[in-house]
Amino acid sequence: MTLPAGAAPLQATPEQHPATQDVFYDGGVFDAGGAVLNLGDWPGFWQDMQHQNLIDQFQKDFNCTVNYDGSWPWSPKFAAGGPQNPPLDVANWNLPDLFKTARGGDYFVPIDELKANIPNSADLWPFAYENGLGITYLFSQYGYAYRKDLVDPAPTKFADFWDDRFSGKRATYITTNTLQMVFFMVASKVWGGDVQNMDAGFDAMQKAMPLKISDFTGNMQTLLERGEAVIVVQHDGEPYAQIDKGVPVGWMYWTELQPVLDQTKTVSRWSQPTQKKLGYALIQRSTDPSYQEAIGVQLYERPTNSKAKIVENLASKGVVNTPEAAKLLWTPPWVWYLDHEQEISERVDKIFGA
After folding, report:
1. CA 274, 63, 267, 23 torsion: positive or negative?
2. How confident is the model at residue 7 (pLDDT cuts 50, 70, 90)?
3. What residues pair up with 145 in beta bridges, in sequence order?
4. Rounded to 5, what percent of the chain is helix, strand, coil?
5. What does DSSP assign to residue 257?
6. H/E segment holding residue 252
7. What 3-state class would DSSP assign to 52?
8. Second-level CATH architecture of 25-137+262-324
9. Residues 335 and 266 sit within 8 Å (Cβ to Cβ)
10. Cβ atoms within 10 Å, residue 97
């Protein structure tokens, strides 16, 4: 087909699209000329912290405006426009949603290209980019939070959640929550020898009933504080904050597998060159030790930069940032989980609803 003179194709070829122009970022400050960077990130207190510790100064330094979109989820927005019309130049993810979105098309800058344009990548622990899609810049770690004034003896291993003494007083999450997905896989491993042993996972969920079911971690904190649940699935940041506020909460890390709850950023493959370069710059600052340490103080998140210091509110709990600790961290097999998500969710929802 021959297009009329001056007409543009409906879908640009790679050679025609401006995203294919070479974009290199060396880690320095540049004048973006008032460009707008579309960022998708969590709302609420998280948004306030990002403005305070990252975005406000970033806008001044780079002469740009960050358009902050907190209306998650991102997946439908990317699917609606297709890869070549990204709704966001940079997006912050948890890995299940990122993997699910990536299945729909060539949305994101390849990981090798991303690393090459983020100088701090050289200082990140390997797990920060082993997902192959984005850069994990902050994380927390899974385990059990429990009421130390109501639980004696304290739990010491993953399987203790199923003790008879916790019947009706233990809690996990709805099946669409990442924490429940990870809990299911670790339970499959502990009780069935393999994270892909779904029957062992279903049996473990059944044997844990009756359970309190929460939709998100903030509500889980409330269940624990009220004593409606005395042992709950959590990530370490929120219980550590409760401990420092004087709430009688104890914490136990899972050791059988050590999964992380990640904060991972991507840059859209088909963003305009200036936006793409700004995206690299934003992730460069997100992986800087000073930023990661500031977020550690305020939100109890942990750094992926090997040069970052562990701040006192985490160090006092025994958290370290060492090669040995980083090697123990585990990224769940999200591709496998998503292949079986419908079956797992339907079965577990039926168990939880019984």
Report:
1. positive
2. very low
3. 232, 251
4. 45, 20, 40
5. S
6. strand 249-253
7. helix
8. 3-Layer(aba) Sandwich (3.40)
9. no
10. 18
Q: Judge if pTM exceeds 0.85.
A: yes
Helix residue spans in the chain (DSSP H): 45-50, 56-62, 75-81, 95-102, 111-116, 178-192, 198-208, 217-226, 237-244, 273-286, 289-299, 312-315, 323-328, 334-339, 341-353
Indicate where the chain has its CATH 3.40.190.10 domain(s).
25-137+262-324, 139-260+333-353
CA–CA separation, 117 vs 150, rounded Å?
Answer: 51
Q: CA nearest 117: which of 18, 33, 50, 28?
A: 28
What is the token pair recorded at 171?
Answer: 């809690």
User: pLDDT tens-digit profile of 97-113?
Assistant: 999 999 999 999 999 99
Strands 231-235, 170-173: pairing is: parallel
**Domain 139-260+333-353 - what CATH class?**
alpha beta
| Residues 6 or more apart in contact with residue 125 via CB below 8 angstroms | 304, 306, 323, 326, 329
Tens of pLDDT, residue by residue over 121-133, are 999 999 999 999 9
- Cβ-in-10-Å burial (0-12, 13-18, 19+) of 45 comes to exposed
- β-strand partners of 142: 235
Q: Which amino acid is it at 171? A: A
Residues 279/267, Cβ–Cβ less than 8 Å: yes
Would you say 38 and 55 are in contact if contact means Cβ atoms under 8 Å apart? no
Give tens-digit pLDDT for 34-51: 999 999 999 999 999 999
CA distance 250 to 144: 8
